[in-house]
Design a protein that fits this description.
The protein has helices at residues 2-14, 17-36, 49-60, 68-79, 83-100. With 101 residues, it is mainly α. The protein folds into two domains: 2-36; 49-100, no CATH class. It is elongated and about 100 Å long. Residues 1-53 are annotated as: Disordered. Residues 45-101 form the H15 domain. One of its GO terms (molecular function) is DNA binding. This is Histone H1-like.
Amino acid sequence: MSESAVATAASPVAAPPAPVEKKVAAKKASGSAGTKAKKPTAPPSHSPTQQMVDASIKNLKERGGSSLLAIKKYITATYKCDAQKLAPFIKKYLKSAVVNG
């Protein structure tokens, strides 16, 4: 009787590792399919930040230089985009433009 109990106990232990491998393979397949299904991003409807900032400084024609607020207002009015979202890019461009001359 102990031999039959050992045989039945051994067979359920061997069965679980097989489904685990199938689950891992299924996860890998679904993960790679998820990366291929990304939608391409649409290009922005406005000009690059560099062009917008250059145009705003030229068109504002202030003798002492244009303030950041004036540049943001000009970009918002002319290009119909949110200057608050572009603020870090405007600041970054102005700093690099000052360094490069």
